[in-house]
Write a structure and sequence with these properties.
globular, about 210 residues, about 30% helix
Length: about 210
């Protein structure tokens, strides 16, 4: 089964509000986007799927906003939920490992996409895409399962990270590309009441090209 088919199946198996990663209000993401995105700056939400982050950005006049996801079903949920406002967001079907952005972004937001990349070359491809899409001096917010988080999600293995481990991984695969600025730990409660430990790291891209 292809990766996109796996996620299409995940999004059609049950209502979006019952998925383990569902957040009615993605409070940490909204707060960090407000903190890190300059006025009028462009945001890309990697693996945003059916997340309500785009709704809140549109409500607040934040953007332009692009949502990239490899599941057509996830993007259809968002498109339906946004209704007429869907035309105000750029909903893109694609895989971050080989996506080519058609513009430069000031902020890269990823809530729980990177930790599915358990292969080293896939991680390297992810960082190449980030480098190409994120402007010099831009900010990347990358959230993964913490070292105490689950070892699988939606039937797939994940790579857990402490904030220092994530920074070391980025520096090993793309030396000097991203400098860590801050991190926080978050306990996410799933719709069924389980608690999943996340780490959220904020990085700044180098100011000048190599």
């Amino acid at each position: 089964m292809s990766t996109n088919q796996h996620w299409d199946n995940a999004y059609t198996a049950r209502d979006a509000t019952a998925l383990t990663w569902f957040e009615a209000t993605p409070e940490a993401s909204i707060r960090l986007v407000r903190q890190c995105l300059p006025a009028g700056g462009a945001l890309v939400d990697i693996g945003g799927g059916s997340s309500a982050l785009v709704d809140h950005c549109l409500d607040a006049g934040i953007g332009p906003v692009t949502v990239l996801d490899l599941s057509a079903e996830a993007l259809a949920i968002t498109r339906t939920r946004l209704g007429a406002r869907a035309s105000s967001a750029n909903l893109v079907l694609g895989d971050v490992r080989d996506w080519t952005a058609d513009r430069s972004y000031d902020l890269w937001h990823d809530r729980a996409a990177f930790h599915f990349l358990t292969d080293m070359e896939d991680r390297r491809r992810y960082l190449r895409t980030l480098d190409a899409a994120l402007c010099l001096g831009g900010i990347a917010i990358i959230s993964t399962f913490a070292s105490t988080g689950p070892t699988t999600c939606s039937g797939l293995p994940v790579q857990r990270y402490a904030p220092s481990d994530l920074a070391d991984t980025f520096d090993a695969l793309a030396p000097g590309l991203l400098a860590p600025l801050q991190f926080e730990l978050l306990a996410h409660e799933t719709p069924k009441g389980a608690v999943q430990d996340f780490q959220i790291s904020v990085f700044k891209k180098k100011e000048t090209p190599p």
